């Protein structure tokens, strides 16, 4: 019964943090996307780049169709992927900072945590290369 009372605040905090994380993620993506779209659209229009685009049939090489939609989609993709990469790197660093000392403390020998660190680093390198 006591364990349940220990678990409830942890579960509630985790749930609230997860909901707030989703909200912050969405807001960050939307605001960054809005700023990037505004900047790139301003650059596109200020430099009169639309005069240099060869408009024609969709099969023609070098033709850009719906450039405004492309700017919006590309900035959304860039903002989302960049946020995911930054947040996952920060999350991994925080997990290492939180669980690293515990791993070192409970490891029977230093070789155990050193092996864990080497395997983690090696798998990360192979995953992202």
Topology overview:
Blueprint: H1 2-46, H2 67-106, H3 110-128
How far apart, in Å, are the first and last alpha carbons? 49 Å
Number of strands: 0
What's the pLDDT, averaged over the residues? 83
User: What's the alpha carbon Rg, rounded to whole Å?
Assistant: 24 Å
Order of helices and strands: HHH
Main beta-sheet strand count, sense and barrel state = none
Report the principal-axis shape: elongated
- Which blocks of ≥5 consecutive residues have pLDDT under 50? none
Tell me what portion of residues adopts beta-strand conformation.
Answer: under 5%
Structural class: mainly alpha
Q: Count the helices. How many?
A: 3
- Helicity range: over 70%
Labels describing this entry:
129 residues, single chain, mainly alpha
